[in-house]
Amino acid sequence: MIDTHTLTDRFGRVHTSVRISVTDRCNLRCAYCMPAKGMKFLPRAEVLDFEDLAFAAKVLASLGVKSVRISGGEPLVRKDLPEFVRMLREAGTTKVAMTTNALLLKRHAAELKDAGLDRLNISLDSLDPRRFEKITRNGHLQKAWEGLEEAIAVGFSPIKINTLVLKGFNEDEIERWVELVQERELIVRFMELMPIGEDDLKDVGSYFDLTALRKELTAKHGLVPATDTHVGNGPAKYWKAPGWKGALGFITPMSQSYCATCSRLRLTCTGKLRACLAYDEDVDLGPALRARDEDAARGLILKALAEKKAGHPWNEGVRTIMGMSEIGG
Ligand code: SAM
Ligand code: SF4
Predict the structure, then answer these.
(1) In which pathway does it act (predicted)?
(2) Which of 78, 168, 211, 312, CA to CA, is 20 to 30 A from 191?
């Protein structure tokens, strides 16, 4: 039986957060996310207006989903994003966060803060400019880093950095990240590669097991669970050692799945609602959102939730077809 006051599914998981993708377009082409050439983007006419997406947030908030993460594609390539943050607040969202590659953040950090954005996650896979350029296919590390520093300067704290660890590419940078969190109030979250979309990683790297890494780092640095670290709604667990200013997180969908405690929904920029990241199954909220039909939207949200599976099938060799840049990361 599904409880409709809080969005509880048949496995007892209460859904309190949604990732809303505002665009599938991006100013980078990360090798694990998009092909180098020939990426097909959604026709602009299919992309919902901010008003439609904010209406979705309003309906979701009425069902107890009051935490929104704005994602993409790269959310900052869409114009007037601070206005969308304001709309979310008016729609009843109590926590608004965003995931970005930070390339455009220097210019927009202050206005996002003023608009009421609460938290920022920055994706940054290498501290080496050449490697950063290789994995992002042309991104400038310095520009992303300037975006991060500006975000700190205008009051976003602590910033979370998401770094995808790939064997043969950046696993030798772990200790540099450790040094950084010892000295700065940053949360660095190591992430595992997931089999989603068309990756183009042949010359770059491959999956790296982070549960094993966490055990090694625990022994080496005496890590303990960081109970004073803000944990947010997400799956990461945080760790630190005495005296560290920041903390480390480990996002381990493959080596230690956290599906049993999943509390997330995902909405694409065309209005497709996915109850699970892994399965290519969604309900189309688009027409109901454009028509501002609250009952229809609510019914479809409940339908998506009723069909949500217990866990992902990635360890059985299944690959998700829709890419992260369209689903919304
Ligand atoms: N463009 C923004 C960014 O990169 O932060 C937001 C969207 S991006 C799709 C969101 C997150 O998804 C990034 O942190 C990225 O590293 C992650 N991601 C993309 N493809 C992935 C994959 N196959 N496995 C694991 N994480 C992935
Ligand atoms: Fe763009 Fe983010 Fe995908 Fe990189 S991970 S290509 S920055 S959407």
Answers:
(1) Cofactor biosynthesis; molybdopterin biosynthesis
(2) 78
